[in-house]
Design goal:
This protein is mostly helical. It has 2 domains: about 200 residues, no CATH class; about 130 residues. It has 14 helices and no strands. The protein is globular. The N and C termini lie far apart (about 80 Å). The relative contact order is 0.10.
């Protein structure tokens, strides 16, 4: 994966990134279209209730409350900062003309929203007990004991968390152990496979559908690796350009290789050491704060092009995503990351997540306030200019003479 990320980021876009994304788009869109048809035909029951005892927090997967944590947990199908990076870092290199951006950008985000909806349908078609068994870590004896206590407690209170189909799903999907497979990939693959397997004429192929769904998800991972690494090396190069100007040139091969190597070494180290979970909890905060920054940029462009009357289209979502993510970031630090820092076995993760989240929040706040200052000062200058022109016109008009 590290080798692929390095090569895909250094090579020109037209050589690998563009043809790979073009071909994979057929599989991605085709699978989602097939899944939509499957949902319509099968009409699966949504076995997860609308409200659970974990709405107020304390859940085994996400410990925070539904608000605001749902907005930093669900990234795909929502306002996404990562997509704003890709739309400026790689998309311009793949279009034939500027007018294509509306169909590509707006259309792809509508498709992203559809993916989010059908993924939610697929995941909630699993029984709650099976869902939590898959998405709750059960690797150590202590984790297994805690999970059993949770199941017994909530089952006694009326929320049935006893697994119902997981043994059958293991046998039919070909996976020896589905318990404790956190991260969401297995959940989505099982949900897709379960729906496809219920389509008339396609029964008995659960093992095929499950592994097909895993391959489908791998395409998204590859996209994240190559495009994410490429944009990251642009950012590292721009930052390094403050020291050595040539690093700012993305086409300079030695600089491209150096910056790509630094980026790949960074995320590769987490994969190699198996410690990706150290920074994973702050992914949602980083993604949504990046979305806030992107909306700040978009609002600034609207004002600078003299179309301030349309600025509400970006200011409204900016206000929501900015305040929600900052609240979620603060609660993550206070209720999750800092308590981890107080335990010797998780101190490194706690301090790392606390420090990085605080830095991200501070940077986002600075950008938001600076953007607001720019908008208000520009608005004031344009009004003064307009008033000055009006007065001058009055002085020179025939009626005034």
């Amino acid at each position: 994966m590290a080798a692929y990320g390095f090569i895909a980021s250094v090579l020109p876009v037209w050589m690998l990134l563009c043809p790979r994304d073009y071909l994979s788009s057929y599989l991605k869109i085709g699978t989602i279209a097939f899944l939509i048809i499957g949902v319509i035909v099968v009409h699966p029951n949504l076995n997860m209730p609308a409200l659970t005892p974990f709405v107020a927090g304390g859940g085994p997967v996400i410990p925070g409350k539904v608000y605001p944590f749902v907005f930093i947990t669900i990234a795909c199908g929502a306002i996404s900062g990562f997509h704003s990076l890709i739309s400026s870092g790689t998309t311009p290199k793949m279009i034939a003309k500027e007018t294509d951006t509306r169909m590509i950008g707006y259309g792809s985000m509508l498709m992203e929203g559809v993916v989010g909806v059908v993924a939610l349908v697929a995941a909630t078609s699993l029984f709650p007990g099976d869902y939590f068994a898959i998405n709750t870590a059960q690797k150590t004896d202590a984790q297994k004991a805690a999970y059993v206590r949770m199941v017994d407690t909530h089952s006694a209170e009326g929320f049935n968390l006893q697994p119902r189909e997981i043994d059958r799903l293991e046998a039919e999907s070909g996976e020896k152990n589905l318990r404790g497979r956190t991260g969401g990939a297995v959940t989505l693959a099982l949900g897709i496979a379960k729906i496809f397997d219920a389509v008339p004429g396609l029964r008995g192929l659960m093992k095929y559908w499950y592994h097909f769904a895993i391959m489908f998800e791998a395409l998204f991972i590859l996209t994240t690796i190559d495009t994410g690494t490429r944009v990251a090396r642009f950012l590292v190069g721009e930052f390094g350009g403050r020291v050595y100007r040539k690093l700012e040139e993305p086409t300079w091969l030695p600089g491209a290789m150096l910056t790509t190597g630094l980026v790949v070494a960074g995320w590769g180290a987490f994969i190699w050491s198996g410690s990706i979970s150290t920074i994973w909890p702050m992914f949602g905060v980083a993604n949504q704060l990046l979305a806030a920054v992107a909306l700040c940029v978009a609002t600034t462009i609207i004002f600078n092009t003299g179309k301030g009357r349309y600025a509400w289209t970006t200011i409204v979502p900016l206000s929501f995503v900015g305040t929600t993510t900052l609240v979620a970031g603060w609660q993550s630090i206070a209720d999750i990351f800092w308590p981890l820092a107080q335990k010797p076995e998780t101190a490194a993760q706690g301090y790392t997540d606390t420090a990085l989240t605080a830095i991200l929040m501070a940077a986002a706040v600075i950008i938001i306030f600076d953007s607001v200052r720019s908008w208000t000062s520009g608005r004031r200058a344009s009004l003064e200019s307009a008033e000055g022109g009006t007065n001058a016109e009055r002085e020179l008009s025939p009626s005034a003479v």
